[in-house]
Write a structure and sequence with these properties.
heterodimer, A: mainly alpha, B: mainly alpha, Rna Polymerase Sigma Factor, Chain: A, Arc Repressor Mutant, subunit A, 74% helix
């Protein structure tokens, strides 16, 4: 018999495959798959068909439910996100507008001209914005007031005027009293300058009281020396006598003049005044000592006779012209002396005085009557 | 109902939703495919695994099945590829027989020395059974490529062209493999017959 396999196979010369082998092989080929495998495969095949049929039998809305749900979720998420962003931006813009509205009215008062009183500042950073300088100065607690600072200055001025009237010693005391005041004014203004100024003021007051005591002492000395000068009154001396008098003696003039002859009494008087001048010079300045010398001189002259007054004037003039005093003479005095010498037709003395005046005031132009 | 239908028609019916058609189709090819895999793997466990994988692939390919070749060719093509994957994992030496040039002189010589077919003499049933066991033993001794070709010819009932198409080789290669396999098997059976003759 010819089986189906050999009929389908082409005939070849090699007789392959071999029919006998094929039959023999068939006898041996008896193995079969296990039934479990058969059941599993057939079940899978049926499940494949049933699932496919189930998918095909569902209504369209059931088939499209899952993709539609996914799409709706995406759309909702995007729209919510966009809405949240829009709301956020709107809030920020509203906030900005509100801040601008609040800031704008506050800026207007600052633009107005400052005619009126000080304008109280707003919530800006600068606390002094809108305030005048007076307000600032008045409201500054740290700086001392002008009244407080001017009180010791007023006292000082009073003392100076008193010292000028009384003598050079007081003027010197007044100068010394300026030192604590200068220190006080030079000190930096701190938060509590009053606390720093108070001890200074106390010290100044103490010095002022001490100076007053000194002033009274010097006044007493001045009166006593004037009395001494009034006691030593001598007859008039020739004009040449004063020229022989020593020109440079100052502090040592007192001893020398004590042993001097009566012919030099005029010089003695003047030297007495110089003695008075010497201790005074140690206290006061140049102007005050000169004033004091003039005062003592005028006292002396007031007590002597008029004839003696002329002689004394001459001796004082000569000694002052030839001697280089510690205090420079004023221009008026120079001119007065020069006119006197010219009137007396003392050409030599006039020339010497003229030279001395030129030395003292080289830039001063003499009037025509004295040239 | 499904007995007169071709393999391709049954598969198409299964594609269209006929589970019974698949059952008929499965019954036709279940034994052949299993034996093919058993002879090739030499191990029942591996054969079961490969067998299930192949049929599941057939089931999953139901929707896209189109008649491009014979069902047997398509089935054994899937089986061949799965078998190669198995060789690569578990029996790399078996792949060497596939890579050997089938057009070698050895194959031609083997074909030339092909012994004449044995005369068909009635052997006893016992003798036939013993010869069959010897044949199976010699088939197992064949190289994988020749063995497969022989089995595809026997189990798959495929022509040389179909065998070439299923294994991805030329017709001549398939022919050489089959010739070598047949020659070796005849040689082995001849020795067995001579040994009996001696007895």
């Amino acid at each position: 018999m010819s089986d189906r396999k050999t009929e389908n196979k082409p005939v070849n010369q090699e007789n392959i495959p071999d029919a006998a082998l094929s039959r023999l092989y068939k006898v041996a080929a008896t193995a079969e798959p296990p039934s479990a495998l058969d059941n599993a495969i057939l079940a899978a095949a049926r499940a494949e068909i049933s699932s496919a049929s189930h998918r095909a039998q569902r209504p369209w809305w059931q088939r499209w439910a899952v993709p539609f749900t996914a799409f709706a979720t995406v759309v909702l998420t995007v729209s919510v996100t966009l809405n949240v962003n829009d709301e956020k931006e709107a809030r920020e813009q509203a906030k900005l507008r509100q801040e601008m509205a609040q800031a704008a009215p506050q800026e207007w008062p600052q633009a107005l001209p400052a005619d009126g009183p000080s304008i109280v500042g707003s919530s800006t950073d600068d606390p002094n914005m809108g305030r005048t300088s007076a307000d600032v100065s008045q409201q500054a607690p740290s700086a001392p007031t002008l009244n407080e600072l001017s009180q010791p200055r007023k006292q000082h001025q009073k003392l100076i005027s008193a010292s000028r009237q009384s003598g050079t010693a007081v003027a010197k005391i007044a100068e010394e009293s300026q030192k604590p005041q200068r220190a006080l004014s030079a000190a930096p203004i701190t938060n509590s300058p009053l606390t720093h100024a108070e001890p200074e003021r106390h010290a100044f007051e103490k010095s002022v009281s001490a100076d007053k005591a000194k002033q009274t002492k010097l006044q007493d000395h001045a009166t006593s020396s004037a009395e001494v000068a009034a006691r030593v009154v001598s007859p008039p001396e020739p004009a040449s006598a004063p020229t022989g008098a020593p020109a440079t003696s100052s502090n040592s003039g007192y001893l020398q003049n004590e042993s001097a002859s009566p012919s030099t009494s005029g010089a003695n008087v003047y030297s007495e005044s110089k003695v008075m001048k010497a201790p005074a010079a140690s206290f006061a300045g140049s102007g005050a000592s000169r004033q004091m010398a003039r005062n003592s001189e005028s006292d002396v002259n007031a007590r002597s006779k008029p004839a003696d007054v002329a002689l004394k004037k001459e001796s004082a003039l000569s000694s002052s012209l030839t001697e280089q005093s510690d205090t420079p003479r004023s221009i008026e005095e120079w001119l007065k002396d020069l006119r006197l010498l010219k009137k007396q037709e003392k050409t030599k003395e006039f020339q010497e005085a003229h030279v001395a005046f030129k030395r003292a005031y080289p830039n001063f132009k003499l009037p025509e009557d004295l040239r | 109902m499904h007995e007169g239908m071709t393999d391709e028609a049954l598969m198409l019916a299964y594609r269209d939703g006929d589970a019974k058609a698949f059952e008929a189709l499965y019954s036709r090819w279940r034994g052949k495919l299993y034996r093919y895999l058993l002879r090739q793997c030499g191990n029942a466990a591996y054969a079961d695994e490969l067998y299930q994988d192949i049929w599941l692939k057939i089931v999953n390919a139901r929707k896209g099945y189109e008649v491009a070749a014979k069902f047997s060719t398509w089935l054994f093509r899937i089986a061949h590829n799965r078998l190669i994957d198995h060789y690569r994992r578990h029996a790399r030496d078996a792949i060497a027989s596939y890579e050997q040039d089938e057009e070698s002189d050895f194959a031609e010589a083997a074909a030339a020395a092909l012994p004449a077919p044995a005369s068909e003499q009635p052997e006893t049933l016992l003798e036939r059974k013993e010869l069959a066991e010897q044949l199976v033993h010699h088939i197992d001794a064949l190289p994988a490529a020749q063995r497969e070709t022989f089995l595809l010819s026997e189990e798959g009932e495929m022509t040389l062209e179909e065998i070439a198409n299923a294994t991805g080789v030329t017709r001549e290669t398939a022919k050489s493999r089959l010739r070598y396999a047949v020659g070796k098997l005849r040689e082995g059976l001849k020795e067995v017959g001579e040994a009996r003759g001696v007895r």
